[in-house]
Specification:
Protein name: Alpha-protein kinase 2
Helix content: 25-40%
Subcellular location: Basolateral cell membrane
Enzyme class: transferase
Catalytic activity: L-seryl-[protein] + ATP = O-phospho-L-seryl-[protein] + ADP + H(+); L-threonyl-[protein] + ATP = O-phospho-L-threonyl-[protein] + ADP + H(+)
CATH class: Alpha Beta
Distance between the termini: 31 Å
Oligomer: single chain
CATH topology: Protein kinase-like fold
Family: Belongs to the protein kinase superfamily. Alpha-type protein kinase family. ALPK subfamily.
Strand content: 5-15%
């Protein structure tokens, strides 16, 4: 928990350094630090400690990326959190995503990180790779994404889909392929369907 949140915090610091100087960007989300405390005399020898956040607690993004939250979409903090996710995604070439952004105003806590299966630069997140896929499919850029010059994920996703459909069009159809397998060697096969 400490490793994930403090890793996300380091990305947030770099994001802030790029975003804050931009004219009109304003305040940037901050991921608060979390500390591991050792208490040897206690029944539970380890605990985490972090700053108390006072005010309305809002989930700007959830782990699975499916929830549509109007406070996320319509608020300044929510839009800047979405931009932060896009920024991290682009900086890591789509290998890492900070997700489960939640907190009070611009102060965030208890975040998650999703990485590709192999991880990213030796780091493995605590969320499924599916969160990256869902983010790529569902993210809608806003004015803060534009201010940072982030590339639209819609264009990239559409190009990938177009390339896939073009490849399938260029494959020869079954009538042009010469079949050389003897009849008695052919057996019915079980096919496993996939949701991909």
């Amino acid at each position: 928990e400490c490793y994930v949140q403090n890793t996300a915090r380091e990305y947030a610091k770099i994001y802030a350094a790029e975003a804050e100087p931009l004219e009109g960007f304003g305040e940037v989300p901050e991921i608060i630090p979390i500390f591991l405390v050792h208490r040897p005399a206690n029944n539970i020898p380890y605990a985490t400690v972090e700053e108390e956040l006072v005010g309305e607690f809002v989930k700007y993004s959830v782990r699975d990326g499916k929830e549509v939250n109007f406070l996320r979409r319509d608020s300044e903090a929510g839009q800047k959190c979405c931009t932060f996710q896009h920024w991290v995604y682009e900086k890591t070439s789509g290998s890492l995503l900070v997700t489960d952004l939640q907190g009070v105003g611009m102060k965030l806590t208890d975040v998650g990180i999703a990485t590709l299966a192999k991880g990213y630069k030796g780091f493995k997140g605590n969320c499924s790779i599916s969160f990256i896929e869902q983010f790529r499919a569902l993210h809608q850029c806003n004015k803060y994404c534009e201010m940072l010059g982030l590339k639209s994920l819609r264009t990239t996703h559409q190009k990938q889909r177009k390339a896939t459909s073009m490849k399938s069009k260029n494959l020869p159809n079954s009538s042009t392929i010469k079949k050389t397998v003897p009849k008695k060697a052919r057996e019915p096969r079980d096919f496993i369907s996939s949701d991909h």
